[in-house]
Amino acid sequence: QAGDVRGFASGAGGSSTVVSLLAEGKCKEATRFSEENFRDFSRPNIDTALRQAIYQHHQALLVAGNNPPACMSEFGLTLASRIGRWKPGEPWLITIEAEFLDIAGRYEEAKAVYEKAFHSMPWASGIANNLAYMMSRKKDALETANKYVSRALKEEPWGSKYYLDTLGWIRYQQGEYESALGFVKQSLLRNPFNGKNDLSEALYHMGMTHLALDQKQEAAKYFELASIQSPWESFGILARGELIRLGIDPYHREPVISELP
């Protein structure tokens, strides 16, 4: 998805060191190590740098949980600023900045970053979708979030697998679970089985929606599939947590074999 934080890339080896240092609150050391890691990146390699930044953001989220170290946003925003000097106005960079602000507990600032970008680049459907998805995670102005993603879907129908999932999650947050299932199922039908975290996320959303409908067997099926698709990424990890809460051991169990959705 163009500009979507959910399309996490596979990062380079140095990320684990940076994330470990961040988790310990060693921001200066993390920044210094990251500078060394990025030293060889130049303008022709900007996409590599962007993917690395997204991966580090993702891993930092996994490590930090609900209590990110105070320095995490400083590190992330410094990294985003460095990349921004190479490629100003890049939608990926806008996403990085907004998401780092959000995990730092600065949601209103993050929202403002997306809104400013949306008004200056109304053609950037990924920005509209990302804003809508972030709002859905916060249960903030869900009707407005619905308008943003509906516009994205109209402007860029080929991005529908992501946008339909966002619509489904908005419906979930509104308590409209049957409607949510319909949208997420449509997303899955358009999603290639590529082992990426975006597919795992849609599967996780299906599981959560079935769980909200007290359909625990169906929920468990989707949680298992989410875990298999991206076992070490965020939604695979979240899915295993849900399986454990259902009393299912995800590590000693025959995998589900089932048609989808």
Written account of the structure:
This protein is an all-alpha fold and 261 residues long. It has 13 helices and no strands. The protein starts with 14 loop residues before the first helix and ends in a 16-residue tail after the last helix. 44% of the residues are buried.
Oligomeric status:
single chain
Average pLDDT: 76
The ordered string of helix (H) and strand (E) elements is HHHHHHHHHHHHH
> Which bin fits the share of residues in helices?
55-70%
**What overall geometry do the principal axes of the alpha carbons give?**
globular
Give the C-alpha Rg.
18 Å
The biggest beta sheet reads: none
Low-confidence stretches: 1-13
Number of distinct helices: 13
* Number of beta strands: 0
In whole angstroms, the N-to-C terminal distance is 21 Å
Strand content: under 5%
Structural class of the helices, strands and pairings?
mainly alpha
